[in-house]
Specification:
The chain is of the alpha/beta class. The protein has 8 helices and 11 strands. The longest helix has 15 residues.
Length: about 240
């Protein structure tokens, strides 16, 4: 059976891993029940499996920065283009979102507005109305975030699906089978709270308290992973 591949491109902090598992475990949990075989893959050390064995691919977040342009990142960019050429549904999250944008000709850099962290409100665009993943979401919804870098210039062929005041490209689609989201649909509320504490050096005490108080469930953002799973299933059945 074809696989839903969750590509690891780095690790969460030791504290997070000990309490909640790693990035890929959160994604698998958020996907929920599926008829697909879900497999984890180390994208920093191994090439992708043969494409004809893949039903869909999720590229996770990472402590690494796309602008580092490490050899494995450049190889994964090429793989992203190959996945699109073969119409294999692909979803990038945070780092994965930025890597996809860069692979298709976009620009990634430090967010000129600074660090976006915590539970924030994201707004859908008019262009999202016909998108198979985003069209059924509310026009505004909450999502968990942490990112220093952003897609500062989207690829020419990208459809922007969501944004907010901090981030012009919170979600985008390229072609018919490739999506990227800057926010984290895989984060639980507890994970978001722990990440805020882990990054308190970047916040004043009042900012930290404000963001902790703002932290809440993000059921609409979390629904993106089950929706992606359903889209993958439709593509092979």
């Amino acid at each position: 059976m074809k696989r839903l591949l969750i590509v690891n491109v780095g690790s969460a902090s030791t504290l997070l891993v000990e309490k909640y598992g790693n990035f890929e475990h959160w994604a698998k949990s958020a996907v929920g029940e599926t008829k697909l075989v879900v497999e984890f893959h180390d994208g920093t050390h191994k090439p992708l499996p043969p494409l004809n064995s893949l039903a869909g691919v999720i590229i996770m977040g990472s402590p690494a920065m796309v602008t580092q342009q490490l050899p494995w990142m450049k190889k994964l960019e090429v793989d992203v283009l190959r996945l699109a050429e073969n119409s294999i549904p692909t979803l990038g999250i945070c780092f994965g979102h930025q890597l996809i944008a860069k692979a298709f000709g976009g620009d990634v850099a430090e967010n000129p507005k600074g660090l976006e962290i915590g539970t924030v409100t994201v707004r859908r665009t008019c262009e999202s109305h016909t998108d198979p993943i985003f069209s059924t979401l509310p026009m505004q919804f909450d999502a968990h975030t942490i990112h220093f870098q952003s897609v500062v210039s989207a690829p020419d062929n990208a459809t922007i699906l969501a944004r907010n005041d901090m981030e012009n490209h919170h979600a985008l689609r390229i072609g018919e089978t490739t999506w990227g989201v800057q926010f984290h649909p895989e984060f639980s509320t507890n994970v978001m709270r722990t990440i805020l504490h882990d990054n308190r050096q970047h916040l004043s005490q009042s900012e930290l308290e404000q963001r902790l108080n703002r932290t809440s469930d993000t059921v609409n953002a979390q629904s993106i992973l089950p929706k992606f799973n359903q889209l993958v299933l439709k593509s092979i059945y």
